[in-house]
Q: What sequence folds into this?
């Protein structure tokens, strides 16, 4: 690798080298917050370098892009990681967890998510996806004293292994059909008249199944509620936003290389989107555990994003990415609030939220706004994201997806309001309020401001994403 290529990868190098240094210097830092502060500064430096330093190359080694699209997502996941680190200090201290190893793992995850969002080849997708997936195996089960954490780690490991096998086999078939690992050449084998189109179609089917596992699209979603429930709250926030967002970014790059969708996949993708919206909503309605409810709601939201990608045009892809950014901001904010509510244990059941508005009014108000944003109520970014997705679906000739999406959005208001109702009901408990940490307040306030700002003034973000979207 040349010096020029290393400079093009500077933001990712900052994350990887910073993680390595912290792993060596801050091992066993139980009860100390300085590794988290240093890690957040490293992530912020990576984000600033991605946004401010122009890349000297547009592509590195034929595997990863270094252009504006890649830099945008590297900055986004770096900022999400910094927010996660800032909001994790009190959570780790209460549980006596090592902050050095935790910080290093999160920075490695950010580097992997950035690489996946930048991938322009099949080999690049596989290496980047497995890089950050391996990190999340550890982070999900990071709290060894929590029995649900070990179970969640195992339930993420097994589907992850299956998805990796499907991904590798699918890539092998696409390579056999096209003779190339580069995305444009590999996907060209899917077009009508290609010599080995049937082999390429089989490979693409396996790739889509692997992506469906990673995105927890129904019916590949069964691991999601157990993993959300057992993973530490701040880790769950990054898993729900950054991990799935990086997969969406790679999937968008993959689909953008085709001039049109292969007709054979259209009914399959429509079915995946419809199942995700309907099954996720019905399952969320039955939940009394808030983290499991949010897990099923993520299935619904991935169905919305898939609806945007299904439009197979620039408008649909722009809507999907705008929705993804808004969803990531809202989700990080929600799990920052849950993290700040966590004392000796996380508030998971609806009954755990009863009366919290009286003891913690500001955080309860923030959680209320963020949950309503997930439901898609104005004037939040959730409303504007759904409006963009459904408008793109109608314009592309998918009225069924838009109608079902609107109906499940209305129904979802019920389960998003359940924690809100509990928070504002009187409680007979005399439990003391859990004191919030300054870092938690900062992240919650920032996510809340962005949720409202992107909802009231979506134009600048939409224009930026429209320029970046392939």
A:
């Amino acid at each position: 690798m040349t010096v020029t290529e290393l400079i093009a990868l500077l933001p990712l190098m900052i994350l990887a080298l910073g993680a390595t240094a912290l792993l060596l210097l801050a091992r066993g830092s139980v009860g100390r917050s300085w590794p988290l502060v240093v890690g957040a500064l490293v992530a912020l430096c990576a984000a600033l370098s991605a946004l401010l330093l122009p890349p000297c190359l547009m592509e590195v080694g034929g595997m990863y892009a270094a252009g504006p699209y890649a830099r945008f997502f590297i900055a986004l996941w770096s900022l999400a990681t910094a927010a996660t680190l800032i909001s994790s200090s009190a959570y780790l201290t209460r549980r006596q967890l090592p902050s050095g190893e935790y910080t290093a793992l999160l920075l490695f995850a950010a580097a992997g998510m950035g690489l996946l969002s930048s991938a322009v080849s099949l080999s690049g997708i596989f290496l980047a996806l497995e890089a950050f997936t391996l990190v999340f195996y550890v982070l999900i089960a990071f709290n060894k004293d929590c029995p649900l954490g070990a179970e969640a780690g195992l339930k993420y490991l097994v589907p992850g292994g299956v998805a990796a096998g499907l991904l590798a086999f699918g890539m092998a078939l696409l390579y056999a059909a096209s003779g190339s690992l580069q995305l444009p050449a590999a996907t060209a084998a899917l077009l009508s008249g290609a010599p080995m189109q049937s082999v390429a179609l089989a490979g693409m089917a396996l790739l889509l199944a692997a992506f469906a596992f990673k995105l927890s699209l129904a019916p590949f979603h069964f691991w999601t509620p157990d993993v959300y429930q057992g993973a530490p709250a701040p880790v769950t926030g990054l898993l729900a936003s950054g991990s799935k967002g990086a997969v969406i970014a790679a999937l968008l790059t993959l689909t953008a290389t085709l001039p049109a969708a292969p007709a054979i996949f259209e009914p399959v993708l429509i079915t995946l989107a419809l199942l995700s919206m309907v099954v996720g909503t019905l399952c969320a309605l039955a939940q009394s555990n808030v983290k499991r409810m949010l897990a099923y709601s993520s299935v619904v939201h991935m169905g919305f994003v898939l609806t945007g990608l299904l439009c197979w045009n620039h408008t649909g892809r722009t809507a999907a990415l705008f929705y993804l950014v808004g969803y990531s901001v809202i989700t990080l904010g929600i799990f920052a609030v849950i993290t700040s509510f966590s004392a000796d244990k996380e508030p998971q059941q609806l009954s755990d939220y009863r009366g919290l508005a009286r003891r913690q009014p500001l955080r309860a108000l923030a959680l209320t706004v963020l949950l309503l944003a997930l439901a898609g109520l104005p004037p939040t970014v959730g409303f504007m994201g759904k409006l963009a997705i459904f408008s793109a679906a109608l314009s592309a000739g998918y009225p069924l997806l838009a109608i079902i999406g609107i109906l499940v959005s209305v129904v979802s208001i019920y389960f998003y309001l359940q924690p809100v109702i509990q928070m504002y009901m009187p409680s007979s408990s005399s439990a003391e309020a859990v004191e919030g940490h300054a870092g938690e307040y900062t992240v919650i306030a920032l996510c809340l401001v962005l949720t409202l700002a992107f909802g009231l003034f979506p134009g600048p973000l939409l224009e930026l994403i429209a320029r970046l979207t392939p």
